[in-house]
Amino acid sequence: MNALELLWLIPLLPFAGAAVNGILVRNSQKGLATAVGIGAPGLSLLVALAALWQYSTTRPGETIQQAVYVWTTGGFSVDIAFRLDPLSAVMTFVVTLVGFLIHVYSVGYMGHEPGYRRFFAFMNLFMGAMLLLVLGANYLVMFVGWEGVGLCSYLLIGFYFEEEFPPYAGKKAFVVNRIGDFAFLVGLFALFATFGTLDFAGIEAQVLADPASATAPYVFGFSVAGFVTLCLFIGAVGKSAQIPLYVWLPDAMAGPTPVSALIHAATMVTAGVYMVARSNILYQLAPEISTVVAVVGAATAIFAATIGLAQNDIKKVLAYSTVSQLGYMFLAAGVGAYVAAIFHLATHAFFKALLFLGSGSVIHAMGGEQDMRKMGGLRRHLPWTYRTFLVGTLAISGVPLLAGFFSKDAILAGAWERSPALWAIGLVTAGLTACYMLRAVLMTFFGKFRGTKEQAHHLHESPAVMTVPLGILAVGAVVAGYAGKIPFTHLDWLGGFFAPVIAVIPGHEAQAGHHGLALEALLVSASIAAAGIGLLVAWRIWGRNRGLDGGSAWAARFPRIHHLLENKYFVDEIYDRIVVRPLAAIARACWKVVDILIIDGALHVGAFVTEMTGDLGRFSTTGNVRNYALYFFAGVLILFWWMIF
Amino acid sequence: MSSEFTALLLGDSITRWVFFPTLAAIPLLFMRRAPTAAIKWYGLVVSLIELFFLVTFALAHWDGAGMVVKDPVFSWIELPGLAIVYEVGIDGISLPLVLLTGLLLPIVLLGSWKGIERHWSGYVLSMLLLTTGILGALVALDLFLFYVFWEVMLIPMYLIIGIWGGERRIYAAVKFFLFTMAGSLLMLIAILWMGWTYGQLAGTWSFRYEDLLLLDLPLAHQTWLFAAFALAFAIKVPMFPFHTWLPDAHVEAPTGGSVILAGILLKLGTYGFLRFALPFFPHAADRLAPWLLVLAVVGIIYGALVAWVQVDLKKLVAYSSIAHLGFVMLGIVACNLVAWQGALLQMVNHGLSTGALFLMVGMLYDRRHTKKFEDFGGLAKVIPWFAIFFVFSALASVGLPALNGFVGEFLILLGSYQAGYRWFTVIATSGVILAAVYLLKMVQETLWGPLTKEENRHLPDLSAREVAALLPLCAFMLWIGVAPKPFLEPSRPALAAVLESYRDRLAGPIADQPTLAISAPGQARVPTFLAASARRESTGPQP
């Protein structure tokens, strides 16, 4: 059987799993719910692996397009179609593999939840939507998946809907994402109005045939490509939690931890990076917007990293870390290092999923406690969680020979080519990353246990169904880096594989970045030094069994800065003051003043006048015959007067 | 006349399914003492037979390329110099709304099962008469006949709000009646004026749609006439600032009344623009388009903002209708095939999703006798199936891809952008953010959070009857969202033909004085829908 013709099954299987678990299975049938919930993404993974194997062995680099059915015809005609090319291949691999492992982990983590079946239904729904997003052959299918994952994010953040905060956080995520989606939609309209199609291949063909069509002036001094890429990037800013729309992601941690790992670390939030890479032909033609992408990415990276330094909730640390790492990926995409962006996306999926699942294992053991100030010394009780978490930490910190080192290095090399300033920001961020991650490890796993006695009594390593996925992800966090560019060598499997995805536009060829060996050595040593310094600082402050004292001392030394960081620069509060509250006030004014006072008021005045006029008329119709006789007489007189004169 | 009419009633004709509800309402006059259950079931059976008629008619006359059917025309009122004909026909533009009406009628009766507590025979009677009025207005091809049906719709709705409504039902009913009446009187004058003008030019008065389409009027005439039609339709839609009757009508109307009101009645306004106001007066429509666009876009934003701050569940849904209909108006005024396809589909979509939401607000009201947000919260725990349907319908209303609302909105916005109204489109598109804001607020305050009210602790979940009312709606929401083509395709030829003749006329010169275009067969002036070559008559006696 030709697995390449079964692309449609890859998203369909999880959708079917969601439907079965959502509608047919009952809460009491836990075994069945597990079988369906794991089986659907498992089968999807198998189909994906078969298809990818066949693709990479028989037709590597080609674009395989598969139309399933016609969505609309007429003035706007579009197919529901799938596309397999190196970019979607890598994404599909990451999504199905990491997604499946997180599903398996969830069997253990969510085992005691009453909403177990519902959880798997939503998770499967998410897998389907995410695969639709990455496998779609046009922007419409991508957008369907794009909003679909947003919906699942909403449902899963608010999974504990009986509490106050999670549903609120879900709503916030959805609304903030919608701000991005609004721009995304406008971008699609402009694309369609210009090219008459939303098909990736169709747009690429037209742009390659006539690059001037995309660089023609459009609005506000933007070219077509500039306007479209700006709109798409705003969409990406919402979905991938960049400044200024990142505020939903930290709150999204209200969802169950596997959700954070799958949606808010490994897959959904990287959709924006994928979209930019997918649209690279347009971004290449819009250098000014690419610069915006790089600057926003770099700013987000360092901004979120500083907040991560002062958070005490283990999941919040990881959340800000995710925001920061996503900024890294946009930095890469903005400087034109699309391969590096996707490379980091893939390695990050492994180590960040690993870190989140590790934190889940900790939270599981702590009976739901997420505050690292109440943890400590857990390495003795959760040895496997500790080891794998440490691997993830070292990987994200950029310790040589682990995955993050290679992908981060690729990004920094790309940034250096475009602007040393961006490179410097990236370098500082790398140091901060190493620092806050080791801080989390030290606060959680080292020192003395600071929780309650009851918690101490219940501390236990998680079951195999949770630790095995941790182990597999840890292997990924080590080896995934060897797929990309390896410094000091010409080995770059990913770069070669990806070559067909990065459009080569006549007249816009990028200069090939061939660093001299000395420069390469300099860049690599700089990033190793940054990671080393970060780790060292963390060890000096929080290490050596100091517990919380070291951190408190630093906080006391810089109270203002600590206050600012701890409260996340008060961005949520600022948004509330300048956006939410004024808008609500306007809305209330529309209702109470315009609707009730002005429009209805005018009507009521009109009705009152009509009524008064009627009353006046009624006053004359008294029913008294003598009055009528008087009117009659007056009338006759007037008649006479008129006839005579 | 009567023999022709009777023959039509008995044959496989449009007339049959227009008047069947009225005929079926006659026995109700003698059933006032019958047990309520019998009346309920009678109404339900009648509505299902009506649905059967509609579906079989549509299938039988389906020719795969946009259906066009007319009943034979016959003279209705004959006076010296004045001939009013009975002329009805259906095409791809009216078909979706006709079928939606047929679908909603049984659902409305199911949804009223508990909420209506008295005078069931009168209630069913009103609903059936209302159905005839709606269907008649959708198929009438003579403007006099159209006006009669238009007013026939008004009275049953007035009664439904005024008799079975809430506390302020009289205020709401009168407000509804006066608003609608004010607009439609001006429309009547415009219709009469057009008939008279036609008489001046052709020798005999006529109100036939295809005759009046031949009128070429000076811009000043067009503008006044367009304004009169537009006002009547804008009040019905309703467009800002003629909308304040709507929230009152919805809040006071019983569940069934709200569903029909939002589901169908409002669409008569947008349908009127598409069928009459734009094709009759292309130059005026084109001149006034910016104003209508402003009102449409203001409606989208304004409706959404006001919906957001409501404290009453039903009022929130009512204001959301203003926003949704703003999208439809944007699509219609954009005069672009994609936008029109989207607008027509969105009329149906709104009927499905808002209809479902109103039904569910009614279901909550049946259980708790309140519609205030403060009395709810955390209901998902108690009534999970209700929660599923509620979230589903709300998401369809939000315009989530793979559900129906997205398809309509996307096509409307894409079309209006393509038509060159870029900035209107961008502002309108921001409505999708606000839709999420107010609809998720609605879901949040009803379903999520801790269960704080003791009274809510033991609410029964959806009954089989309620599921039967909601399931078809939700099934269509999903179907349209996943595979919209079968829903778009039947209307395309009709829309394309109307658009083409509209553009042709717009491109032509503006007359200095009223003149009558010479009608030649196949001329673009008369949309193919009316052209003799494309017309297929339903069985029945020839005039």
Short structural description:
The complex is a heterodimer of chains A (about 650) and B (about 550). Chain A has about 650 residues and is mainly alpha-helical. Chain A is about 70% helix and about 0% strand.
User: What would you call the shape of chain B?
Assistant: globular
Number of domains of chain B: 1
Tell me how many strands of chain A there are: 2
Helix count, DSSP H or I runs of 4 or more residues of chain A: 27
- String of helices and strands of chain B: HHHEEEEHHHHHEHHHHHHHHHHHHHHEE
Assign the structural class of chain B, choosing from mainly alpha, mainly beta, alpha/beta, alpha+beta, or little secondary structure.
mainly alpha
What value does the average pLDDT of chain A take? Answer: 87
* Oligomer classification: heterodimer
Q: Which ranges of chain B are low-confidence, i.e. pLDDT below 50, for 5 or more consecutive residues?
A: 520-524, 531-536, 538-543
